[in-house]
Amino acid sequence: MKWVALSGLCAALLVSLPAAAQKSAAEAIADYRASLQDGNPADLNAARGAELWRKARGPKNVSLEKCDLGKGPGVVAGAAAQLPRHFADVGAVMDVESRLVHCMVALQGFERDALVAKPYSGTAEKATDIEDLVAFIYDESRDVQVKVPQSHAKEKQAYERGKKIFFFRGGPYDFSCASCHSADGQRIRLQDLPNLTQKAPAQAAFASWPAYRVSQGAVRTMQWRLYDCFRQQRFPELKYLSQASVDLITFLGVNANGGTMAAPAIKR
């Protein structure tokens, strides 16, 4: 039990044998996550992201405080709960990360290619600016109801394309997203695989990303989550901020409508 001593955070799992016998693995993992939430390291990412949001940076030396995330310039509270959505200024549907990068380019003058070249931090690396900013933006939507819109024609088209991607089978294992996430009661080892075609699990899954991954010691964004899913399916690499990624997030978000945002969460 050396790992327990090292983490100092797993005491919630040390229960009596009779109690443990009455708990499923999923319930025990849920209790473990709950015990960590008050000390979620993602809070530090969000705090750094808040500073980055307000700091004048980039070739234009301006802040992101005029960035429009869908609720008006500078309004961050509740914005992530309504993304992806159509933005008239670009004529496209954008998720949180694609809209953030757009603002960093348009307002601050950063080079897009440089921003997207390395959006994710590596092992034992400092979080990227994008990871910190995303943590901040989502933290501002905590406890807000998910309302991903479908009023614009392009939003509906994005949803339909995302649905097709979700069920598309391919690769060396003939997998799809649905292979793991369209049936009840499936798991990999101790990890439950939520049925993302059903309302309650779809809401819980969408609302908990981005998340701090304990196993990686880093905040991982929704774009990263999809990238890693494609990797595990042995699909071609999912390009950061690609149309396919935004479409798939749109599909997942619409399925989660009515849920309550709980990100950044904490996961194994």
From TrEMBL:
InterPro entries: Cyt_c-like_dom, Cyt_c-like_dom_sf, SoxA. Its main location: periplasm. Residues 157-268 form the Cytochrome c domain. Residues 1-21 form the signal peptide. Its EC number is 2.8.5.2. It is found in: Periplasm. It catalyses: S-sulfanyl-L-cysteinyl-[SoxY protein] + thiosulfate + 2 Fe(III)-[cytochrome c] = S-(2-sulfodisulfanyl)-L-cysteinyl-[SoxY protein] + 2 Fe(II)-[cytochrome c] + 2 H(+); L-cysteinyl-[SoxY protein] + thiosulfate + 2 Fe(III)-[cytochrome c] = S-sulfosulfanyl-L-cysteinyl-[SoxY protein] + 2 Fe(II)-[cytochrome c] + 2 H(+). Transmembrane segments: none annotated. Keywords: Electron transport, Heme, Iron, Metal-binding, Periplasm, Signal, Transferase, Transport. Pfam families: SoxA-TsdA_cyt-c (PF21342). Belongs to the SoxA family. Heterodimer of SoxA and SoxX. This is SoxAX cytochrome complex subunit A. It comes from Caldimonas mangrovi. The gene is soxA.
